[in-house]
Amino acid sequence: MYLQTCAALSVAELSALKLMHGVSSTCDIVYSFLVLFCLQYLSINLYYTCIYPFFVSPLRKIPGPKDHHPLIGQTLNQFRANGPYELYLSWSRKWPAAPFIRYISFGNTETLLVNSLRAHQEVLSTKCYSFVKPPFFARIVGEVTGMGLVFAEGEEHRIQRKLLNGIFSTSNVKKLLPVVQLHGRCLTKTIDQRIGCDVSAVVEVVSLFSKATLDIIGLITLGKELDSLNAKPSFHECYDLIFNQSPLSSGLTAVNTYIPLRSWLPLEANRSFVAANNEVKRILRQQIRLRQIETATSKSATKNPSLPISRDILTYLLEAPPSPQQQWTEDELLGYLRNEIMTLPRHGDPDYTQIEGLRYLNNFCREVLRVYAPAVMIWRQAAHSVVIENTYIPAGTNVIISPQVPQFHPHIWGSSAANFEPDRWDSLSSESASPYAFQAFSSGPRVCIGKGLAMLEFKAILVEIVRKYEFEAVEGTLVLENYLTLRPRGGLRVKFKVAGEGKMKRKG
Ligand code: HEM
Fold this sequence. Notes:
About 50% of the residues lie in helices and about 10% in strands. By secondary structure, the protein is an alpha+beta fold. The chain has a domain of about 55 residues. The strands form four sheets. The chain has a five-stranded mixed beta sheet. Strands 4-12-9 form a three-stranded antiparallel beta sheet. Strand 10 and strand 11 form a beta hairpin. It starts with a helix and ends in a 10-residue tail after the last strand. The C terminus is likely disordered. It binds protoporphyrin IX containing FE. Protoporphyrin IX containing FE binds next to helix 19. GO terms for molecular function: heme binding; iron ion binding; monooxygenase activity; oxidoreductase activity, acting on paired donors, with incorporation or reduction of molecular oxygen. Keywords: Heme, Iron, Membrane, Metal-binding, Monooxygenase, Oxidoreductase, Transmembrane, Transmembrane helix.
């Protein structure tokens, strides 16, 4: 945008100069154009980085932290913070009643963090289509997920959602339970193999669960086992490379957010990321093409719908590390869960109604997603100027929803907001019962389309694991990081041993 404005201004100024001083040589014209263009570009950038945010912007009076670096804003503080949510939560605690909190990010751009329930409702629901995904977000996420429904806007988004909603309806998700259970059994088979003849085994679960989740989504969306694709390197190897980048490659991803260097930097760390990413997309495109041909030729195809877009396969994964602040011990919480799951018939897989009937399991899963929301940031940009909660938001302003902010807000969840307490879901206050108090899947017209499927997967796999094993985390302290989703840094090692009888009786 600046580039076009500067070019237009330079042309106008050059024409005026020519009128005043007569026609000069082509060389002079090009030289003058370049000088004028650079001067203008520099001035505009200086204005927007050094003057506008601090002396002119209508957002400057909104409460927010002032301890930013003069050029890179809060970027350094975010990098130094204890986990990806820490700064947002500390600001939200400092200004609990503010609808928005304003902070300065890289290059002194202003960002608004959504804070109150009402502001969440307006941004995500009432005025949902006044906001779009910012271009830099498309660069970081789009390069991994591709540009499907996630990046469709306005009317195009409404149409795509209408087409896809049916596939993810409760009645369809119900039918997918056997697929999920089948993969749950494959997962426990892997754990059994690792235990072998020993009493217990330590297993790195992030890659194990990621693989199971991917396999389920692959089978549901492509109608194919990803393991059976015979690609070299395999689909899972490429996927692992994308999500477990080297420090240099992660740094490049961060830089790519602001300066789109990714596609032409001749570094090995960059090349392997780009190659893995391209390979994943190639495999998916190929499978989708095959599926489309099958669908076109098969009479029964309409009974077996598949998603027409490749990005849905690279989706959010569940991680559930234990909370350091919890009041109940891990043993007690898992004991309650085990006791409830053990009320299911011993043999055979539970059906959908039986799983949905497990009240504590449902509370447990929602509490995991409340305390450890996998999506750390949901990015938006004002498509046009808009007023929310008496705050004037100019077009182009970046707005961020961080699910942990409403999910830890003391005005919504009370003073125990940071504690892991599954029972809180049985007695919600009017604030915490609001659909905007729990944002792990976002809400409004852009709510996660896979929410029902993700919850079913989470519960069904937990049932499978809890029935078979007793388990505990091996590492004492977990460091969480954000790479597209919340992940334990360096993975999560869990000690599994085959379960005996449930030992804990539920209190009360
Ligand atoms: C625990 C698991 C999951 C979590 C926490 C999660 C979270 C989210 C969140 C927060 C959004 C909103 C993103 C935004 O507006 O920028 C979203 C959107 C989306 N999710 Fe999920 N998701 C999960 C699983 C899934 C699954 C299993 C699928 C599909 C198989 C899926 C497909 C999508 C799609 C297509 C969108 C875009 C919806 C739209 O813009 O209309 N998600 N998800």
